C-alpha cells in the first residue's frame, strides 16, 4: 500500500465513521478537508509505518477532543484491508502498521509498472497555465514540471513573458506566484550558460537547487565521484542493472512473491528504508505539482531530485547483499533482494526521465 492509497483508506474510514453515526461531522461542510488526508512516517514518539493527524483536523468540527476523535476512528481504520494495527499516540495521532506482505506486494507493483510507477489520474482533465520568462533555467523547470504534471494526468500550457529583471532575480523575489489563476514561475537565473555541461548535467544543475536558490554552473557536475549527486543517482541505477545482469549469469531471477517477505527481511534497516522510499514515490510526484504557492519550496522538481539522491544513497550499500558470495547458492532471499534492487532501479530511471535526464545501464 502506497501513501496515496493509505491516505484514501484513512479518508474512507472517516466516511464510514460518519455514516455509522460514530462521528458527528458534516464532511460536505469541510471544504478544507482534502480528497487525500496527509500520511507520513511517524515523528519522534510515533510507532508503525505511517502516521496521520486527521483526528486533529476533525476535532473542532466534531466538537470533540482530538484524542476522542482518534479513538472513534481507530476501529474503522484498523479493520481496513492492508492494515495490521493502529495505535494512538500524543494528542491524537493515528499510527498505522501495514499488513505483512506489503513489502513484496509493493515491489511487485513497481516491477509491473516499471518507470511509470507513481503515475496516476489525480489531475485528469486539469490544465495549468504556467507563465515563465525567456530564461534557460525557467524553460528547463517548465519542461520538467510539464512532464511531472502529465504523469499525474494533467497538462501544462506554457506562456512566456519578458526576460528576468533584476527585481525578479533578487533572493527576496517569490519564485512561484499565482496571478489571476495563472502560475508565474520566476526562478533565480543561472549565473552563466550551462550548455557546456552537456544536456544531462546542465538540466540537473538547473533543477536540483530550489528555484529561490541560484544554481551553480561548474565542472563539478561532470565528475564521477560521490560529491556529485547526479553521478550518485546515475551510478546507483547502473549498479542495479549490473546486479541484474550478474544474477542472470548466475542463473536466477527476481522473485517478489508474498512468500518472500521473510527473505526480504523488511524489518532490517536497509530494506525497510528502501521500501518506505519506494512507497513514498507516488506521493512525492503528486506533491511536485505546482498548485500551492505558499510553501517555501512550492511544487518544484528539486523535490524529485532530492528524493532520487536519498534513494540512490540508500540502495548503494544494499546492493552487495543481493548476489551470493563464494560457494553460496542463490536462495529465495537473493531473489527477493534482487526484486527490490530492480524496483529501485526502475524508480530511479523513471524519476530521471521526468527530469529529462538519461539513465544509462552502463556507467
Give short descriptive properties of this protein.
four-stranded antiparallel sheet; 11% strand; 363 residues; four-stranded mixed sheet; alpha/beta; single chain
Outline:
This protein has 363 residues and is an alpha/beta fold.
Shape assignment: flat
What profile does the largest beta sheet have? 4 strands, antiparallel
N-C termini distance: 33 Å
Mean model confidence by pLDDT? 84
How many individual β-strands? 8
> What is the N-to-C order of secondary-structure elements (H for helix, E for strand)?
HEEHHEEHEHEEEHHHHHH
Structural class: alpha/beta
Structural overview:
The protein starts with a helix and ends in a 9-residue tail after the last helix. The chain has helices at 3-19, 54-62, 66-78, 102-113, 136-151, 199-207, 229-250, 261-264, 269-288, 302-315, 332-354; strands at residues 39-40, 50-52, 83-89, 93-98, 127-133, 155-161, 176-179, 182-185. Helix 1 (3-19) crosses helix 3 (66-78), helix 2 crosses helix 3 and helix 7 packs across helix 10 (302-315). 43% of the residues are buried. Helices cover 44% and strands 11% of the residues. The protein contains eleven helices and eight strands. The strands form two sheets. It has a four-stranded antiparallel sheet with strand order 1-2-4-3. It is an alpha/beta fold and 363 residues long.
Topology readout:
Elements: H1 3-19, E1 39-40, E2 50-52, H2 54-62, H3 66-78, E3 83-89, E4 93-98, H4 102-113, E5 127-133, H5 136-151, E6 155-161, E7 176-179, E8 182-185, H6 199-207, H7 229-250, H8 261-264, H9 269-288, H10 302-315, H11 332-354
Parallel strand pairs: 5-6, 5-8
Antiparallel strand pairs: 1-2, 2-4, 3-4, 7-8
Helix pairs in contact: 1-3, 2-3, 4-11, 7-10, 7-11, 9-10, 9-11, 10-11
